[in-house]
Amino acid sequence: MEYTGFRIYEIHGEFTQFSLGQDAKDYGVLECQIWGGGLVALTRNFKLVAITNFEEPRVQNLADALTGAPHCWTIIPPQFTLSGHLEVLISVNNTVLVVDSNSAQDQLVQQGPFTRMSMSPNGKFLALFTADGRLWVVSTDFQKSLADFSTNSAEGPLQVTWCGVDSVVMHWEDTILMVGPFGDWIKYTYDGVVQMVPEVDGVRIISSDKCEFLQRVPTVTEDVYKIGSTKPGAILFDAFEHFERGSPRADENIRNIKTDLTEAVDTCLEAAGHELDVGRQRDLLKAASFGKAFLDAYPADKFADMCRAIRVLNAVRHYDIGMPLTYDQYNRLTPNVLINRLIQRHHHLLAVRICESLGLSRNRVLIHWGCAKIKRSVHDEETLARIIVEKLGEDDAGISYMELAKAAYESGQTKLATRLLDFEPQAANQVPLLMSMKEDEIALVKAIESGDTDLVYLMILHMKRQLSPPEFYRIIAGKPLAVSLFESYCRQGDIRLLRDFYYQDDRRIESANAGVVEALGEGELDERVKGLKIAAKAFAEDKEFVFESKCTEDQIRLLQQQTVLERETAHEFMNLSVSETIFKLILLGHANRAAKVKSDFKVSDKRFWWLKIRALIQSHSWDALEKFAKANQKFGYVGIVDTLISVGALAQAQKYVEIMVRSGGQQEKEAQGYLELLTK
């Protein structure tokens, strides 16, 4: 059977499957090694492929380094490398190659070939077993040799691993050999083959009928229990035992370690954490409490934290739970990760009690319990919703129901999902899930109730893409905020959609207004005229909008005239207003055409006079200006003078001021102010 991919199994059998890439598919997988965050596979064509993150699995091909099967290989996880990238150590010939995604480097060692290799839990040391039966321990950069131990075995071990960070354990059939840092060794006998699993502070030995843990005795435990120990912790423990028996030597022992009493209390306290036997834990805690009573100040939290940690460890070590953690493992794991492992095993009650004991939030435990309940419950949806809401209770304010609703939806219980979302306090969590459930109208209502316009816009754009126009218009109609935001969106980029919405909603005048805006934005004249005619007809159907209808018709006539003017004058007039059209015609010298536009659109004499003097002044047609001004004296000269002064034509302005002075009356009075300005 060829292996071409991998699966991540949960403890209850559910799994997620991923591919290991084309090489694995074409040739199969020869061997695979796993580390905390990913894995590396060796394919049958001797290529290395890596998955560096199980959360977001992507296949990464490592550099080509092999032409045949290696003697052995191991992984250095990214957190232990100088580069911060995954590295693989491969034993080939007599040397070791370090392979990453870019290159393969020969470490130029000559002690090989190596048949087994293993990295220490802290990533600093490497244990290698040579073909001639020697154990060589070296730093992972191969710069420092730490140990060289001969096993006198012609046969290589089945497994080499680490016991903590200061000893190496090798396994042959029926035998386990533990080698210390100074060449000391100890041998254990087993029936048959076992499997060894390294831990941060020891090694688990799993046989066919039991699981044992081999570790170096913790230093604090040795300080307390070692025969003849004179350490402060041992003396304090001895003093406590004398105190229990009512012996006066208790006081003598306390006096002997008075200056080291804090150290003694710390030692007994930590030894209690490392102890697995509940009776000895109790004795060590009593000894620490006894010594603490003779200190003026000792952190109460330190003692309480250790008691809580011991209670947690004793609870998870119980055979019903089956997690025999040590104190060092618990600290490395952290309580949060321990709680995650408990809830993955569905020990929700214990997880909640640990959260309460350690002062941690229990929300994630309750959420996971709810999700598991949803997936496995036989109750109807209404009953299940009531059970979940009652169990979570009012005292867990702020708990998110989104994950519960998502689990319900994925298990096909849509009604339950919708009901649970009603209890979700964050609208930003409600809306996306309702969208995925195709409950668009409910999602829109939730977005509106939240008052978050971004959420409302999100829903509007989502429905616009997913729904037919009639269905979309039906849902947003009657929801003022949604309609207002939709109108704002359309005005910025989709007037036609807005026009259709108004028409569908029987708002003919608004539809006509949108039609005018849309028509004026068209590039082709025929399309503009067509759109404006439709709008004009819509306006004409309502007696209150006769004026708008007339204006729209005038705009059509203006567009048509501007088309003719462009053809006759070879200048652009499109998109100009009536006034701008007249002004440009005068500026170009087409006075007759300007007069025709004035007549066709009933432009007043006053406005036409104003447009013409501005055009004549801008074109510096002084003679024509003078002639036009005299012919239209009823409009006076003030506007002419103001315009001339604004463009800097002061000499021309002076001429018209003098005409105002000669005219006498009101014009003479108005001229006085201009005379003072022109004199300055």
From TrEMBL:
<dbReference type="Pfam" id="PF04841">
    <property type="entry name" value="Vps16_N"/>
</dbReference>
<dbReference type="GO" id="GO:0003779">
    <property type="term" value="F:actin binding"/>
</dbReference>
<dbReference type="Pfam" id="PF04840">
    <property type="entry name" value="Vps16_C"/>
</dbReference>
<dbReference type="InterPro" id="IPR006925">
    <property type="entry name" value="Vps16_C"/>
</dbReference>
<dbReference type="GO" id="GO:0006886">
    <property type="term" value="P:intracellular protein transport"/>
</dbReference>
<comment type="similarity">
    <text>Belongs to the VPS16 family.</text>
</comment>
<dbReference type="GO" id="GO:0005768">
    <property type="term" value="C:endosome"/>
</dbReference>
<feature type="domain" description="Vps16 C-terminal">
    <location>
        <begin position="399"/>
        <end position="669"/>
    </location>
</feature>
<dbReference type="GO" id="GO:0016197">
    <property type="term" value="P:endosomal transport"/>
</dbReference>
<dbReference type="InterPro" id="IPR038132">
    <property type="entry name" value="Vps16_C_sf"/>
</dbReference>
<dbReference type="InterPro" id="IPR006926">
    <property type="entry name" value="Vps16_N"/>
</dbReference>
<feature type="domain" description="Vps16 N-terminal">
    <location>
        <begin position="7"/>
        <end position="303"/>
    </location>
</feature>
<dbReference type="InterPro" id="IPR016534">
    <property type="entry name" value="VPS16"/>
</dbReference>
<dbReference type="GO" id="GO:0030897">
    <property type="term" value="C:HOPS complex"/>
</dbReference>
<dbReference type="GO" id="GO:0098588">
    <property type="term" value="C:bounding membrane of organelle"/>
</dbReference>
<dbReference type="GO" id="GO:0042144">
    <property type="term" value="P:vacuole fusion, non-autophagic"/>
</dbReference>
<dbReference type="InterPro" id="IPR036322">
    <property type="entry name" value="WD40_repeat_dom_sf"/>
</dbReference>
<protein>
    <recommendedName>
        <fullName>Vacuolar protein sorting-associated protein 16 homolog</fullName>
    </recommendedName>
</protein>
